[in-house]
């Protein structure tokens, strides 16, 4: 009962405008400049979910595109289209901030009795 109410609240929040980015109901793509270009080029072979579940920098998206072009039969894009796609993906599905903390530096780590002394 409480769970159902909480779920209802979450759905209510998610669908109220302003709190979350507007999404295309068919594909789930966030509506932002360039989303139609991505829809037109990125859902012929797999679900849009594969795209929306991924995230990362421009370089990450570019390397995925190059991999699909080399290995999966993705067609080449002209420079403008590629630019539109990369800008859209890296801003709507950019690197997740705060998902992981950066690694500690060696000096911040606790004393490690097993650490080898630096070689002479
Ligand atoms: C010509 C077919 C084709 C098109 C068009 C295509 N892809 Fe893919 N893509 C693939 C295949 C095949 C896979 C691997 C699917 C699998 O692992 O099930 C894949 C996998 C992916 C993955 C998952 C990669 C991973 O790390 O698992 C992402 C993200 C992705 N594609 C994004 C895109 C984007 C963005 C576009 C548009 C620019 C696009 N795809 C267009 C064929 C395509």
Please specify the SSE layout and strand pairing.
Layout: H1 2-15, H2 35-42, H3 48-52, H4 58-71, H5 79-92
Heme C binds at residues 41-42, 44-46, 50-51, 54, 64-65, 68, 72-74, 85, 89.
Region (Disordered): 93-120
Keywords: Signal
Signal peptide: 1-20
Structure, described:
This protein has 120 residues and is mainly α. It has a domain at 19-95: Cytochrome c-like domain (Cytochrome Bc1 Complex, Chain D, domain 2, Orthogonal Bundle), CATH 1.10.760. Helix content is 46%, strand content 0%. It is built from five helices and no strands. It is elongated and about 60 Å long. The model is unreliable at 11-18 (pLDDT under 50). Heme C binds next to α2, α3, α4 and α5.
Please give a quick description of this structure.
By secondary structure, this protein is mostly helical.
């Amino acid at each position: 009962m409480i769970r159902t109410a909480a779920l209802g609240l979450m759905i209510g929040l998610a669908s109220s405008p302003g709190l979350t980015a507007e999404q295309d109901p068919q594909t789930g793509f966030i509506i932002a400049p360039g989303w139609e270009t991505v829809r037109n080029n990125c859902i012929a072979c797999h679900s849009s979910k594969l795209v929306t579940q991924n995230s990362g920098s421009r370089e990450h998206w570019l390397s995925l595109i190059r991999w699909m072009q080399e290995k999966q039969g993705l067609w080449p894009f002209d420079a403008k289209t590629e630019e539109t796609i990369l800008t859209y993906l890296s801003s709507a599905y950019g690197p997740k901030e705060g998902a992981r903390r950066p690694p500690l530096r060696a000096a911040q780590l606790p004393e490690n009795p097993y650490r080898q002394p630096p070689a002479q």
